[in-house]
Amino acid sequence: MGISIYDTPLPERQLSEYLQLLETCGLRDEGDADIIALMTEDDRLVACGALAGHTVKQLAVAPDAEGQGAMAAVLSALISEAYARGVHRLFLCTKPENLRMFGSMGFHIVIETKDAVLLENRKGGLDSFLESIPKYDGVCGAVVCNCDPFTLGHRHLIEYAVSHCDDLYVFAVSEKGSMFSPQERLEMIRKGTEDIANCHVFESDLYLISRATFPAYFIRDESRADLVKSDLDIELFCRRIAPALNISRRFAGEEPFSPVTRAYNERMKELLPANGISFEEIPRLAEISAGRVRSLIESGNIEKIREMVPESTYEVIQRRS
Amino acid sequence: MEIKKTAVAGTLESSDCMVTVEPAKKGIELELESAVIRQYGRQIRKVALATLKRLGVRNARVSIVDKGALDCTIKARVECAVMRAAEHEGRINWGGMIK
Protein backbone atom coordinates (compact mmCIF):
# COMPACT_ATOMS: atom_id res chain seq x y z
CA MET A 1 0.00 0.00 0.00
CA GLY A 2 1.27 3.44 -0.80
CA ILE A 3 0.04 7.00 -0.68
CA SER A 4 0.86 9.61 -3.31
CA ILE A 5 0.21 13.31 -2.98
CA TYR A 6 -0.76 15.23 -6.10
CA ASP A 7 -1.14 18.92 -6.77
CA THR A 8 -4.42 19.53 -8.59
CA PRO A 9 -5.42 18.98 -11.32
CA LEU A 10 -4.92 15.21 -11.12
CA PRO A 11 -3.52 13.31 -14.12
CA GLU A 12 -6.32 11.84 -16.23
CA ARG A 13 -6.12 8.22 -15.12
CA GLN A 14 -5.95 9.12 -11.41
CA LEU A 15 -8.77 11.61 -11.86
CA SER A 16 -11.24 9.09 -13.22
CA GLU A 17 -10.43 6.58 -10.47
CA TYR A 18 -10.74 9.31 -7.85
CA LEU A 19 -14.12 10.51 -9.13
CA GLN A 20 -15.30 6.91 -9.25
CA LEU A 21 -14.29 6.31 -5.61
CA LEU A 22 -16.02 9.51 -4.47
CA GLU A 23 -19.18 8.50 -6.26
CA THR A 24 -19.10 5.04 -4.70
CA CYS A 25 -18.93 6.74 -1.30
CA GLY A 26 -21.74 9.18 -2.05
CA LEU A 27 -19.46 12.21 -2.39
CA ARG A 28 -18.62 14.49 -5.29
CA ASP A 29 -15.56 16.50 -6.15
CA GLU A 30 -16.16 20.20 -5.54
CA GLY A 31 -13.25 21.30 -7.67
CA ASP A 32 -11.59 23.44 -5.00
CA ALA A 33 -8.86 21.08 -3.78
CA ASP A 34 -5.24 22.26 -3.73
CA ILE A 35 -3.78 18.82 -3.14
CA ILE A 36 -5.19 15.30 -3.31
CA ALA A 37 -3.85 12.20 -1.55
CA LEU A 38 -4.47 8.85 -3.20
CA MET A 39 -3.84 5.53 -1.54
CA THR A 40 -3.41 2.53 -3.81
CA GLU A 41 -3.13 -1.17 -3.17
CA ASP A 42 -2.06 -3.51 -5.98
CA ASP A 43 -2.49 -0.61 -8.39
CA ARG A 44 -6.09 -0.03 -7.29
CA LEU A 45 -7.31 3.14 -5.59
CA VAL A 46 -8.57 2.27 -2.10
CA ALA A 47 -8.76 5.62 -0.33
CA CYS A 48 -8.50 9.34 -1.01
CA GLY A 49 -8.60 12.73 0.63
CA ALA A 50 -8.02 16.36 -0.31
CA LEU A 51 -6.94 19.65 1.15
CA ALA A 52 -8.60 22.92 0.09
CA GLY A 53 -7.05 25.88 1.88
CA HIS A 54 -7.27 24.94 5.55
CA THR A 55 -9.95 22.33 5.04
CA VAL A 56 -9.53 18.58 4.77
CA LYS A 57 -12.25 17.14 2.59
CA GLN A 58 -13.23 14.41 0.15
CA LEU A 59 -12.11 11.69 2.58
CA ALA A 60 -13.29 8.36 1.23
CA VAL A 61 -12.38 4.70 1.62
CA ALA A 62 -13.50 1.96 -0.78
CA PRO A 63 -16.12 -0.19 1.02
CA ASP A 64 -14.05 -3.38 0.73
CA ALA A 65 -10.98 -1.65 2.20
CA GLU A 66 -12.70 -0.34 5.31
CA GLY A 67 -11.45 -1.19 8.77
CA GLN A 68 -7.80 -1.47 7.79
CA GLY A 69 -6.67 1.97 8.79
CA ALA A 70 -6.77 3.51 5.31
CA MET A 71 -8.56 6.63 6.56
CA ALA A 72 -5.93 7.19 9.27
CA ALA A 73 -3.14 6.76 6.72
CA VAL A 74 -4.66 9.20 4.20
CA LEU A 75 -5.46 11.78 6.87
CA SER A 76 -1.91 11.49 8.27
CA ALA A 77 -0.42 12.04 4.83
CA LEU A 78 -2.59 15.12 4.27
CA ILE A 79 -1.72 16.58 7.69
CA SER A 80 2.02 16.06 7.12
CA GLU A 81 1.81 17.64 3.68
CA ALA A 82 -0.22 20.58 5.00
CA TYR A 83 2.37 21.27 7.71
CA ALA A 84 5.20 20.97 5.20
CA ARG A 85 3.41 23.67 3.19
CA GLY A 86 3.02 25.91 6.22
CA VAL A 87 -0.70 25.22 6.75
CA HIS A 88 -1.00 24.47 10.47
CA ARG A 89 -4.64 25.08 11.17
CA LEU A 90 -6.87 22.42 9.74
CA PHE A 91 -10.63 22.03 9.65
CA LEU A 92 -12.68 19.02 8.73
CA CYS A 93 -16.39 18.79 8.09
CA THR A 94 -18.07 15.43 8.43
CA LYS A 95 -21.29 13.66 9.35
CA PRO A 96 -22.09 13.46 13.08
CA GLU A 97 -21.63 9.67 13.09
CA ASN A 98 -17.93 10.11 12.24
CA LEU A 99 -17.34 12.40 15.21
CA ARG A 100 -15.84 9.70 17.38
CA MET A 101 -13.36 8.56 14.73
CA PHE A 102 -12.00 12.02 13.94
CA GLY A 103 -12.22 12.96 17.61
CA SER A 104 -9.62 10.28 18.28
CA MET A 105 -7.40 11.67 15.52
CA GLY A 106 -6.69 15.01 17.13
CA PHE A 107 -9.71 16.90 15.80
CA HIS A 108 -11.94 18.90 18.15
CA ILE A 109 -15.51 19.98 17.72
CA VAL A 110 -16.26 23.57 16.67
CA ILE A 111 -19.99 23.24 15.99
CA GLU A 112 -22.41 20.40 15.45
CA THR A 113 -25.66 20.68 13.53
CA LYS A 114 -28.33 18.12 12.72
CA ASP A 115 -26.47 16.74 9.72
CA ALA A 116 -22.90 18.00 9.90
CA VAL A 117 -20.13 18.63 12.35
CA LEU A 118 -17.18 20.97 11.96
CA LEU A 119 -13.92 19.99 13.63
CA GLU A 120 -10.54 21.66 13.91
CA ASN A 121 -7.11 20.40 14.87
CA ARG A 122 -6.74 22.80 17.77
CA LYS A 123 -8.38 22.27 21.13
CA GLY A 124 -10.44 25.27 22.21
CA GLY A 125 -9.46 27.21 19.07
CA LEU A 126 -12.76 29.06 18.82
CA ASP A 127 -12.75 29.81 22.56
CA SER A 128 -9.35 31.46 22.39
CA PHE A 129 -10.41 33.44 19.32
CA LEU A 130 -13.50 34.70 21.18
CA GLU A 131 -11.43 35.48 24.29
CA SER A 132 -9.09 37.61 22.21
CA ILE A 133 -11.93 39.94 21.16
CA PRO A 134 -13.02 42.83 23.41
CA LYS A 135 -16.61 42.78 24.70
CA TYR A 136 -19.03 45.70 24.86
CA ASP A 137 -22.02 46.28 27.12
CA GLY A 138 -24.62 47.91 24.90
CA VAL A 139 -26.52 46.59 21.91
CA CYS A 140 -23.94 44.91 19.69
CA GLY A 141 -24.24 44.33 15.97
CA ALA A 142 -22.17 42.43 13.44
CA VAL A 143 -21.25 42.68 9.79
CA VAL A 144 -19.27 39.95 8.07
CA CYS A 145 -17.70 41.03 4.84
CA ASN A 146 -15.22 39.94 2.26
CA CYS A 147 -14.36 43.45 1.03
CA ASP A 148 -12.30 42.38 -1.96
CA PRO A 149 -11.65 45.38 -2.11
CA PHE A 150 -13.34 47.64 0.48
CA THR A 151 -15.70 50.02 -1.36
CA LEU A 152 -17.98 52.92 -0.48
CA GLY A 153 -20.76 50.33 -0.65
CA HIS A 154 -19.25 48.49 2.33
CA ARG A 155 -18.75 51.83 4.04
CA HIS A 156 -22.43 52.64 3.49
CA LEU A 157 -23.48 49.31 5.05
CA ILE A 158 -21.21 49.85 8.05
CA GLU A 159 -22.42 53.42 8.59
CA TYR A 160 -26.01 52.20 8.56
CA ALA A 161 -25.24 49.31 10.92
CA VAL A 162 -23.28 51.45 13.38
CA SER A 163 -26.19 53.88 13.63
CA HIS A 164 -28.48 50.97 14.54
CA CYS A 165 -26.50 49.59 17.49
CA ASP A 166 -24.15 50.81 20.23
CA ASP A 167 -21.08 48.89 19.08
CA LEU A 168 -20.46 47.18 15.78
CA TYR A 169 -18.17 44.25 15.12
CA VAL A 170 -16.93 44.03 11.56
CA PHE A 171 -15.47 40.63 10.74
CA ALA A 172 -13.24 40.46 7.70
CA VAL A 173 -13.28 37.15 5.87
CA SER A 174 -9.82 35.67 6.40
CA GLU A 175 -9.65 33.37 3.39
CA LYS A 176 -7.58 34.39 0.40
CA GLY A 177 -9.76 36.61 -1.78
CA SER A 178 -9.90 36.52 -5.54
CA MET A 179 -7.74 39.66 -5.73
CA PHE A 180 -6.56 41.01 -2.35
CA SER A 181 -4.87 39.17 0.52
CA PRO A 182 -6.59 38.92 3.91
CA GLN A 183 -4.03 41.37 5.34
CA GLU A 184 -4.70 43.90 2.58
CA ARG A 185 -8.45 43.62 3.07
CA LEU A 186 -8.17 43.97 6.85
CA GLU A 187 -6.03 47.07 6.36
CA MET A 188 -8.49 48.54 3.85
CA ILE A 189 -11.45 48.00 6.20
CA ARG A 190 -9.59 49.36 9.24
CA LYS A 191 -8.37 52.48 7.43
CA GLY A 192 -11.65 52.99 5.64
CA THR A 193 -13.60 53.00 8.92
CA GLU A 194 -11.11 54.50 11.38
CA ASP A 195 -13.15 57.71 11.66
CA ILE A 196 -16.27 55.78 12.69
CA ALA A 197 -16.48 55.55 16.47
CA ASN A 198 -17.76 52.24 17.90
CA CYS A 199 -16.82 50.29 14.79
CA HIS A 200 -14.42 47.47 15.67
CA VAL A 201 -12.75 45.51 12.89
CA PHE A 202 -11.41 41.99 13.39
CA GLU A 203 -10.30 39.08 11.31
CA SER A 204 -12.87 36.30 11.32
CA ASP A 205 -10.02 33.83 11.82
CA LEU A 206 -11.71 31.30 9.48
CA TYR A 207 -14.73 30.96 11.77
CA LEU A 208 -17.09 33.00 9.55
CA ILE A 209 -17.54 32.62 5.79
CA SER A 210 -14.51 30.38 5.34
CA ARG A 211 -13.86 27.40 3.13
CA ALA A 212 -14.41 25.33 6.27
CA THR A 213 -17.72 26.84 7.44
CA PHE A 214 -19.22 27.75 4.06
CA PRO A 215 -17.42 26.07 1.15
CA ALA A 216 -20.11 26.95 -1.42
CA TYR A 217 -19.21 30.63 -1.08
CA PHE A 218 -15.74 29.92 -2.44
CA ILE A 219 -16.68 27.28 -4.99
CA ARG A 220 -19.14 29.64 -6.65
CA ASP A 221 -20.98 27.05 -8.64
CA GLU A 222 -23.82 29.44 -9.36
CA SER A 223 -25.88 26.85 -11.17
CA ARG A 224 -26.31 24.91 -7.95
CA ALA A 225 -27.17 27.80 -5.68
CA ASP A 226 -30.34 26.00 -4.64
CA LEU A 227 -28.11 23.42 -2.98
CA VAL A 228 -25.99 25.96 -1.12
CA LYS A 229 -25.33 24.76 2.40
CA SER A 230 -24.72 27.63 4.77
CA ASP A 231 -26.39 26.33 7.93
CA LEU A 232 -23.11 25.37 9.57
CA ASP A 233 -21.75 28.90 9.14
CA ILE A 234 -24.96 30.53 10.36
CA GLU A 235 -25.35 28.19 13.33
CA LEU A 236 -21.74 28.74 14.32
CA PHE A 237 -22.45 32.46 14.34
CA CYS A 238 -25.74 32.11 16.24
CA ARG A 239 -24.73 29.54 18.81
CA ARG A 240 -21.07 30.25 19.49
CA ILE A 241 -19.97 33.69 18.30
CA ALA A 242 -23.03 35.88 18.91
CA PRO A 243 -23.63 34.72 22.53
CA ALA A 244 -19.96 35.14 23.47
CA LEU A 245 -19.86 38.70 22.11
CA ASN A 246 -23.39 39.68 23.07
CA ILE A 247 -24.35 40.27 19.42
CA SER A 248 -28.08 40.70 18.84
CA ARG A 249 -28.14 42.21 15.35
CA ARG A 250 -26.61 41.29 12.05
CA PHE A 251 -26.50 43.37 8.92
CA ALA A 252 -25.71 42.46 5.33
CA GLY A 253 -25.81 44.16 1.96
CA GLU A 254 -28.57 43.19 -0.45
CA GLU A 255 -27.22 40.88 -3.11
CA PRO A 256 -28.56 41.39 -6.64
CA PHE A 257 -25.75 39.56 -8.44
CA SER A 258 -24.49 36.40 -6.75
CA PRO A 259 -27.07 33.62 -6.27
CA VAL A 260 -24.83 32.03 -3.60
CA THR A 261 -24.68 35.16 -1.44
CA ARG A 262 -28.39 35.72 -2.02
CA ALA A 263 -29.16 32.19 -0.82
CA TYR A 264 -26.97 32.85 2.25
CA ASN A 265 -28.89 36.03 3.08
CA GLU A 266 -32.21 34.23 2.61
CA ARG A 267 -31.12 31.51 5.01
CA MET A 268 -29.98 34.11 7.55
CA LYS A 269 -33.44 35.65 7.40
CA GLU A 270 -34.84 32.34 8.61
CA LEU A 271 -32.21 31.15 11.09
CA LEU A 272 -31.07 34.34 12.82
CA PRO A 273 -34.45 35.45 14.21
CA ALA A 274 -35.07 31.86 15.38
CA ASN A 275 -31.93 32.30 17.48
CA GLY A 276 -32.98 35.68 18.85
CA ILE A 277 -30.80 37.73 16.50
CA SER A 278 -32.36 40.31 14.19
CA PHE A 279 -31.25 40.41 10.57
CA GLU A 280 -31.39 43.39 8.27
CA GLU A 281 -30.56 43.52 4.58
CA ILE A 282 -29.50 46.96 3.43
CA PRO A 283 -30.13 48.07 -0.17
CA ARG A 284 -26.95 48.55 -2.18
CA LEU A 285 -25.54 51.85 -3.23
CA ALA A 286 -26.30 52.00 -6.93
CA GLU A 287 -23.50 51.09 -9.32
CA ILE A 288 -21.00 50.07 -6.65
CA SER A 289 -19.78 46.53 -6.16
CA ALA A 290 -16.42 44.99 -5.30
CA GLY A 291 -16.76 42.82 -8.40
CA ARG A 292 -17.05 45.88 -10.65
CA VAL A 293 -14.06 47.48 -8.96
CA ARG A 294 -12.05 44.30 -9.57
CA SER A 295 -12.90 44.23 -13.26
CA LEU A 296 -11.97 47.91 -13.60
CA ILE A 297 -8.61 47.19 -11.93
CA GLU A 298 -8.07 44.25 -14.25
CA SER A 299 -8.76 46.36 -17.32
CA GLY A 300 -6.39 49.05 -16.01
CA ASN A 301 -9.14 51.62 -15.45
CA ILE A 302 -7.81 52.74 -12.07
CA GLU A 303 -9.05 56.34 -12.33
CA LYS A 304 -12.64 55.18 -12.76
CA ILE A 305 -12.73 53.43 -9.40
CA ARG A 306 -11.97 56.64 -7.50
CA GLU A 307 -15.64 57.41 -7.02
CA MET A 308 -16.41 53.89 -5.80
CA VAL A 309 -13.80 53.42 -3.09
CA PRO A 310 -12.52 55.42 -0.12
CA GLU A 311 -9.14 57.15 -0.51
CA SER A 312 -7.50 54.53 1.76
CA THR A 313 -8.58 51.69 -0.55
CA TYR A 314 -7.43 53.65 -3.58
CA GLU A 315 -3.96 53.91 -2.03
CA VAL A 316 -3.74 50.16 -1.52
CA ILE A 317 -4.81 49.55 -5.12
CA GLN A 318 -2.28 52.07 -6.44
CA ARG A 319 0.47 50.44 -4.41
CA ARG A 320 -0.24 47.15 -6.16
CA SER A 321 -0.23 48.38 -9.71
CA MET B 1 17.06 23.90 21.35
CA GLU B 2 14.87 26.73 20.17
CA ILE B 3 11.55 25.95 18.51
CA LYS B 4 11.31 28.25 15.51
CA LYS B 5 8.23 27.05 13.69
CA THR B 6 5.36 24.60 13.91
CA ALA B 7 6.20 21.08 12.78
CA VAL B 8 4.67 17.65 12.91
CA ALA B 9 6.00 14.08 12.87
CA GLY B 10 4.39 10.66 12.94
CA THR B 11 1.02 9.39 11.77
CA LEU B 12 -2.42 8.57 13.14
CA GLU B 13 -2.03 4.93 12.23
CA SER B 14 -2.30 2.17 14.76
CA SER B 15 0.78 1.75 17.01
CA ASP B 16 2.05 5.19 16.04
CA CYS B 17 1.52 8.70 17.34
CA MET B 18 1.40 12.16 15.76
CA VAL B 19 3.46 14.79 17.53
CA THR B 20 3.03 18.51 16.86
CA VAL B 21 5.56 21.00 18.21
CA GLU B 22 4.84 24.74 18.20
CA PRO B 23 6.76 27.76 19.46
CA ALA B 24 5.71 28.98 22.92
CA LYS B 25 6.81 31.80 25.22
CA LYS B 26 7.38 30.12 28.54
CA GLY B 27 7.79 26.53 29.51
CA ILE B 28 6.57 23.27 28.10
CA GLU B 29 2.87 22.79 27.53
CA LEU B 30 2.07 19.17 26.76
CA GLU B 31 -1.32 18.02 25.55
CA LEU B 32 -1.99 14.32 25.18
CA GLU B 33 -4.84 12.42 23.59
CA SER B 34 -4.89 8.66 23.75
CA ALA B 35 -7.39 5.83 23.89
CA VAL B 36 -5.17 4.32 26.60
CA ILE B 37 -4.63 7.52 28.53
CA ARG B 38 -5.79 5.91 31.80
CA GLN B 39 -3.33 3.04 31.54
CA TYR B 40 -0.36 4.73 29.89
CA GLY B 41 -0.96 8.49 30.00
CA ARG B 42 1.61 9.05 32.72
CA GLN B 43 4.23 6.92 30.98
CA ILE B 44 3.70 8.66 27.61
CA ARG B 45 4.09 12.06 29.25
CA LYS B 46 7.21 10.90 31.07
CA VAL B 47 8.86 9.70 27.86
CA ALA B 48 7.88 12.85 25.94
CA LEU B 49 9.08 15.23 28.68
CA ALA B 50 12.37 13.32 29.14
CA THR B 51 12.98 13.50 25.39
CA LEU B 52 12.28 17.24 25.29
CA LYS B 53 14.61 17.78 28.24
CA ARG B 54 17.41 15.78 26.63
CA LEU B 55 17.03 17.86 23.46
CA GLY B 56 17.26 21.04 25.51
CA VAL B 57 13.77 22.27 24.56
CA ARG B 58 12.67 24.78 27.21
CA ASN B 59 9.74 26.51 25.55
CA ALA B 60 7.27 24.68 23.37
CA ARG B 61 3.67 23.70 22.94
CA VAL B 62 3.59 19.99 22.26
CA SER B 63 0.57 17.96 21.33
CA ILE B 64 0.59 14.18 21.06
CA VAL B 65 -2.22 12.19 19.49
CA ASP B 66 -1.37 8.66 20.52
CA LYS B 67 -2.60 5.57 18.71
CA GLY B 68 -0.97 3.03 20.99
CA ALA B 69 2.68 3.85 20.30
CA LEU B 70 5.48 2.14 22.21
CA ASP B 71 7.96 4.26 24.19
CA CYS B 72 10.62 4.02 21.47
CA THR B 73 8.12 5.30 18.89
CA ILE B 74 7.03 8.19 21.08
CA LYS B 75 10.67 9.15 21.64
CA ALA B 76 11.48 8.99 17.92
CA ARG B 77 8.42 11.02 16.90
CA VAL B 78 9.10 13.72 19.51
CA GLU B 79 12.73 13.92 18.39
CA CYS B 80 11.75 14.21 14.74
CA ALA B 81 9.09 16.89 15.34
CA VAL B 82 11.54 18.93 17.47
CA MET B 83 14.30 18.68 14.85
CA ARG B 84 11.90 19.91 12.17
CA ALA B 85 10.48 22.67 14.37
CA ALA B 86 13.99 23.84 15.33
CA GLU B 87 15.02 23.74 11.66
CA HIS B 88 17.75 21.40 12.76
CA GLU B 89 17.31 18.72 10.09
CA GLY B 90 20.45 17.80 8.24
CA ARG B 91 22.72 18.54 11.16
CA ILE B 92 21.55 16.01 13.66
CA ASN B 93 24.06 14.86 16.23
CA TRP B 94 23.48 11.11 16.00
CA GLY B 95 24.79 9.36 19.09
CA GLY B 96 24.84 12.71 20.91
CA MET B 97 21.49 14.25 21.69
CA ILE B 98 19.79 11.59 19.58
CA LYS B 99 20.70 8.21 21.01
Describe this structure in words.
- The complex is a heterodimer of chains A (321) and B (99).
- With 321 residues, chain A is an alpha/beta fold.
- Chain A is built from eleven helices and twelve strands.
- The longest helix of chain A is centred in the last third of the chain and has 16 residues, at 259-274.
- Chain A is globular.
- The relative contact order of chain A is 0.11.
- The mean pLDDT of chain A is 92.
- The mean pLDDT of chain B is 94.
- Chain B has a four-stranded mixed beta sheet with strand order 1-2-4-3.
- Chain B has helices spanning 37-54, 71-85, and strands at 7-10, 17-22, 28-34, 60-66.
- Chain B has a single domain (7-85), classed as Ribosomal Protein S5, domain 2.
- Chain B is an alpha+beta fold and 99 residues long.
- At the A-B interface, α2 of A face β1 and β2 of B.
Report a brief summary of the structure:
The complex is a heterodimer of chains A (321) and B (99). With 321 residues, chain A is an alpha/beta fold. Chain A has helices spanning 12-24, 70-84, 99-103, 125-131, 152-162, 182-192, 215-219, 231-245, 259-274, 290-298, 311-320; strands at residues 2-7, 35-41, 44-52, 55-61, 91-94, 108-112, 117-120, 140-145, 167-172, 199-203, 247-253, 278-282.
How are the elements arranged and paired?
The complex is a heterodimer of chains A (321) and B (99).
Chain A: E1 2-7, H1 12-24, E2 35-41, E3 44-52, E4 55-61, H2 70-84, E5 91-94, H3 99-103, E6 108-112, E7 117-120, H4 125-131, E8 140-145, H5 152-162, E9 167-172, H6 182-192, E10 199-203, H7 215-219, H8 231-245, E11 247-253, H9 259-274, E12 278-282, H10 290-298, H11 311-320
Parallel strand pairs in A: 4-5, 8-9, 8-11, 9-10, 11-12
Antiparallel strand pairs in A: 1-2, 2-3, 3-4, 5-7, 6-7
Chain B: E1 7-10, E2 17-22, E3 28-34, H1 37-54, E4 60-66, H2 71-85
Parallel strand pairs in B: 3-4
Antiparallel strand pairs in B: 1-2, 2-4
